[in-house]
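Researcher: I'm comparing several assemblies side by side, and this is the next one on my list. It has 1496 residues spread over two chains. Same procedure as the others: predict the full complex and return the structure.
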Amino acid sequence: MRKLLSSLLICATGLALTPAPADVPLRGFFPQSVQAERDLEARFKTMPDPGRMREAMRRLSARPHHVGSPYDKDNAEWILGQFKSYGWDAHIENFDVLFPTPVERVVELVSPTTYKASLQETALPGDPTSNQQAEQLPSYNAYSIDGDVTGPLVFVNYGVPADYEVLEQHGVSVKGAIVIAKYGGSWRGIKPKVAAEHGAIGCLIYSDPRDDGYAGGDVFPAGPMRPAQGVQRGSVEDMPVYPGDPLTPGVGATKNAKRLSIAQARTITKIPVLPISYGDAQPLLTALGGPIAPAAWRGGLPITYRLGSGPAKVHLRVKSDWSLKTLYDVIAKLPGTTEADQWIVRGNHHDAWVNGAEDPISGLVAELEEARALGTLYQQGWHPKRTIIYAAWDGEEPGLLGSTEWAETHADELKAHAVAYLNSDGNGRGYLEIEGSHSLEKFVNGVALDVEDPESGASSWKRVQASRILNGTPESQREARDREDLRIGALGSGSDYSSFLDHLGIASLNLGYGGEDDGGIYHSIYDDFYWFTHFSDTSFVYGRALAQAAGISVLRLANADLLPFAFTNLGETVQGYVKDLQSLRDRRSEQIVERNRQIEEGLFKFTSDPRDPVTAPQRQLPAPQLNFAPLLNALDSLNHAAARYDRAYNRAVTEGRVTNAKSVNERLIQAERALTSTEGLKNRPWYVHMLYAPGFYTGYGVKTIPGVREAIEQGQWQDADREIARAAAALEREATLISGIVAALPGA
Amino acid sequence: MRKLLSSLLICATGLALTPAPADVPLRGFFPQSVQAERDLEARFKTMPDPGRMREAMRRLSARPHHVGSPYDKDNAEWILGQFKSYGWDAHIENFDVLFPTPVERVVELVSPTTYKASLQETALPGDPTSNQQAEQLPSYNAYSIDGDVTGPLVFVNYGVPADYEVLEQHGVSVKGAIVIAKYGGSWRGIKPKVAAEHGAIGCLIYSDPRDDGYAGGDVFPAGPMRPAQGVQRGSVEDMPVYPGDPLTPGVGATKNAKRLSIAQARTITKIPVLPISYGDAQPLLTALGGPIAPAAWRGGLPITYRLGSGPAKVHLRVKSDWSLKTLYDVIAKLPGTTEADQWIVRGNHHDAWVNGAEDPISGLVAELEEARALGTLYQQGWHPKRTIIYAAWDGEEPGLLGSTEWAETHADELKAHAVAYLNSDGNGRGYLEIEGSHSLEKFVNGVALDVEDPESGASSWKRVQASRILNGTPESQREARDREDLRIGALGSGSDYSSFLDHLGIASLNLGYGGEDDGGIYHSIYDDFYWFTHFSDTSFVYGRALAQAAGISVLRLANADLLPFAFTNLGETVQGYVKDLQSLRDRRSEQIVERNRQIEEGLFKFTSDPRDPVTAPQRQLPAPQLNFAPLLNALDSLNHAAARYDRAYNRAVTEGRVTNAKSVNERLIQAERALTSTEGLKNRPWYVHMLYAPGFYTGYGVKTIPGVREAIEQGQWQDADREIARAAAALEREATLISGIVAALPGA
């Protein structure tokens, strides 16, 4: 059946997944270089081996391997050995970071009835690693402050700012209360942060079965979903302020680094927080009184979800061991030849919350197979133009610690030498998901076209396109059909690209397959070899596809004659962002006007139900008009320069030579750097990129042109015009840099 | 608090709920008649008594009173006595109708495990009437065919046609299967009808706790929601074909009426069907295998919802007593004076599925208080111009039996004399919900402005407007602010107005308050006095408001100098329907083109997940263009005539006399009749109204301009142009009639 399907698809689309002929252009390569690159890639593609990935996963996920655990170090040493055996120049780089581990954890309902939460994930028969209790990190949220609090319980939905507006309308306050929030709807660290801002004294976070439990399928081990006792661990460090070691913002956490005191660290929570299972959450939620939760807030438990606060009173106690722990980053190098001081950096973390088969080992085993293949090619005589650096990061889970400390330590070298950073993390079945710098959008589309999707037999590109046409809005449907390149998402946070892109301005991409399998084992003891090999990419064919996609990206970047950046995609994307911002302002303005009018008309009073009275919201000041002219002017400059670069690039490729290619490439590397601003974002100077940042109130979720967008979203109108000017200045710098490159190319 | 709120509202809006002064116009009244009418209404408004409503509800809902039960007859006789005691000329009119009552009911899971459904609602402590088991009609769906079937179980969501497309995409067939559908999403009778069309052999319908169980609040008796054993009874007669007695379509079911055989009756289901509780549904749903149900299909049970068919096999047995039962319609009359042969008809049913406090007694007790008040006014010397007929219908629950048989029996008189029919059914707290003929839209808006909302102190009109501004789409928000009249909905089916409007072309209105209280006792033994007086309009102030709204409507219609129809609202509304139809065709056309293109592009194959393969849908023929010109021309005629009528009406009112008022009113009565067509709708000739009908595949839900709309929706393109011409002819008749009336008014 699948075979037939595949051949049908190839007929239907004319896609032949044999290598493209040498006369089809390849972004970044002169005509005379294409054939050699295609041949090299064809050899490379055959090398990643699903069987080896499976065995590597078995080995790496055999025991819990969180930061500071014996098996974390053991894995690092094994990975080091692997790189060396592949012919790479590899070493381990250590850092000493603040990483709290739990000492005391108590959650109990103290009235109207009593219930003591078990806070314990149980070993499951048939699952051979879930019984390694002695080595498992108990369920907790890293970087929760220590605390011992008792207070009424309030259900806050996902705990994002909009949820507190609903609570306020229903007259429910969280002042002095312990909130209970569902996982999801935002990055988890946002939940205690927003709760504390509203006066809460403690925070519980639970996994609702509607979101990743039985609603989506059978629970583990019968199926992939979260069982009643399963808990999502995770960091609640305030990463939107800065990631990495809380004690060494902006500098590497080396042995003798100058450290803040814990009290000085801005990224530790203000209130204690613990994650719990839905098994433990159900008695607490059942005890809640108060108004019935809106339909959209309700989860999958067989109860009436209420807001509180009612009779339910909860005691929460959290205490951690706040000692420093050692990180083991594995760094491996293949030296470049003619452009050795231009670096292609590729990474995936190796630490996990527990056994971490899916997160992160499923991505790491692909990276290791890439490394083995590249090492083999190297030994067979291929030497890359540029230096290739492969990293297996430690400490990603607590707060991107390993990558951040390494990037901060090597900031100056990286700013001078790094061409691009390629990241992966977990991997699964389905669709090639790509996010990253839009100057690489055209490049990575070319890669996706050349990697076969294992299930459909079509290209990974074609499958994503098909899905967007079938499932997209009319606009994204039209775009998927008509636009030359599939649009890639912007990067927020949540994995190790953050320091490279957000702090150093290095063009970055994040790659991974997914979208076909549901699961509910994220950050639990059940994310293990048994789960992955029963419910995810069981044959590791998508692991191979990831190794092919990332490996070909590395090969092309390392071998390219002219680095394959394209700025028309960047300009067009930023133009979309600016339009977004303009309509965001207008929409906010209309909302404020409409809301104020509704208040004046007394509508909230007319419709208040005496059995569930609603309070009218506060009047807000009308939104001022903003001066978008600087951004629009800068955009014109950027688009103009980008178009000129396209023409110059095409001329250069047609001619087949650029005398000063090395220096042109060195200037191309600086194109992403030009989008940064030394003073960084308001209140979080660690973040210097003017186009991309994780949202202050979303965490993982990206905010594009963040200075302007967050000023509008948060109603800080007085900042908006200044932020527009800062973003515009970055775009003008970019335009100037690109114009300079154009001048240096032939025919200028 | 409430007192303060009310006075605030009055300040904010300038609304004084004392009667409007005599110089404010009153639709239908000459200036010299306004003061008397206002005075009369002011006296009327003080009369409906919440205390009496409470006691009447206690009496009428004291025992089960379904069709054929002793207490149904007893209630009818008590109601008759009430009318007589109020001074009305009242009698009981009997009909003999086919009404099946259950003899055998079996639902059992026979594999892979076994479970026998209890099919039994249990008596609850504290609820004094739930223990009247001997008199309760067991839970069942009336007009299910007898049957004894065993087959695999398939979950079909709400069981509407679109759900079967999803099943087909997942490769799940219901051929030879027993389907289980959730209540909701359509009228219940649609579920077995569509299931049978797809080859199912049996149908179960259950109440999911997400829809009216614990998700929405505490379950009865602690709260208003449906407990685990609660079952929704209800008719599954194919009412979109014709309502009323299945054996006497189109004629009254009098003693000697010519009757069809049961086998000839088109409105009995094709497959056996039974309703069950979620307590009984859970073991069946848990046993299902097959693909996981889409997220939107999942309910509130703590299980993984799957589509089947899997190992679950079910045995269903239904057998009824198919004897005829006697209906007791109570008909009461206050004779008119100068225009006695113009009738104002008002009704609410008295039969229930069990005790029926909410459905229908909460509406009936308001109607009785209106009748008492009108009788008192009559005895005090007020005599209406027109004859007023109040009805308490029997047999509404099984299929609008009492009203249909009465309307069919008196069809000729009603067509000649009936000005309007005013209906109510259950009543609750909240917002005045109005549906009906758009020629009465302006009139009923005037009534809503003059009835105080008991909670806010504002008018019932104002409160609805406030809610639409707060909760509506931008378009309905704008309309609620700017349009002179609040838009009223069109009538589908689901209560006793159907025969008057759909079969006889009598302008109709349906009135009731609701929207603030959730409940889950509908058609169960728990819809009783205890429930209503604990969880709904406990002080009966909304019962009083309904009596005021309906009573004032009756008074104004009965006393008006010129009947208060207004046709500009009708024309504007129909214009909206025609625009809808045009964009519906275009949207369907685009969907077909897009879907065919997706099939050609192979998108379904590219995206099919081998673990949950999806089948591409079938290609469809493109939609032809339709000739809307006849409808648009007819609309021009109607709008033109309506505008001229408005001017003529205003002149007549300004002059304060119309010499031929009686004959003008007789012609106004015919305006709704003009919108009917003698041959009726395709395949259901009982329905003759060309603007309004219940949807063939929605049941209660209305289809406006149904001939055209259903031809487009069902892709029966060959019918569409003919249906457009038929609808256009009705509008032309209406325009001609109105033009004739204009000519008969002064100044023509």
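Model: For your comparison table: Chain B has three domains: 2-98+325-559, 101-321, 567-744.
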